[in-house]
Amino acid sequence: MSDKYPALETIDNDLTSTEPGKEFDSDFLSREKELLGEEFKTDQDADVLNGSDDDDINDFKEQFPEVDETEAERQEQAAAETEAETADEGFNGSNDNHLIQGESEHLKEWKERRELEIEKREQANAKSKQDIVDKAQKTIDDFYDNYNNKREQHTKEVLKEQEEFLEKRDGFLKRGTLWDRVNELVGEVGEPTADENRDKTRFKGLLTKLKGKENVPGAGGY
């Protein structure tokens, strides 16, 4: 009987031997087991002693996680995603900048070649245009030179012929009588064309008789 129900001093000693700061409820089952022995032991004691409460608490925490922890994890995940996106954007941006820079270099070279070709083409066109203008100007100058030369030459020839004609005329009028000059002109003109209806033999004979006679009518020219 004494084994099952120990003395009060023993209980007091057990109570006083408890470590300071240790709560009474935490060792309740242990003390009951020491006092009552194996009779008080049940199947649920192992679960309680082994931390079944901890399992329930862990299940509760898994189903209902703490807000601060979830928020921290979400922030960490968002920060990681943002960092990855930033790195990706930086990589893509660097590639885009490299491509844009490459395209800019090629575009710059193409523009320089195009401007050089345009400049050469304009120079060639300007030279060709100037050659055409020079050739046209030379043609016009040659035309006017030839025209002026020919005109001057023609004028000289006309004046010369005029002088010769006037000189010949004056010399002709100074020779002999009027009838002498008429006979000379008839001789230069030649024999008249024969006309069946008219006979000019008598007229020609009359002119021949008047030749060399200064006292006949009209011999002086009036």
TrEMBL record:
Function text: Clathrin is the major protein of the polyhedral coat of coated pits and vesicles.
Localization annotation: Cytoplasmic vesicle membrane; Membrane, Coated pit
Coiled-coil annotated spans: 107-169
Keywords for the protein's UniProt record, in alphabetical order: Coated pit, Coiled coil, Cytoplasmic vesicle, Membrane
One of the Pfam families matching this protein, by short name: Clathrin_lg_ch
Any one annotated GO CC term: clathrin coat of trans-Golgi network vesicle
Protein name, per record: Clathrin light chain
Membrane topology per record: Peripheral membrane protein
Organism: Hyphopichia burtonii NRRL Y-1933
Lineage of the organism: Eukaryota, Fungi, Dikarya, Ascomycota, Saccharomycotina
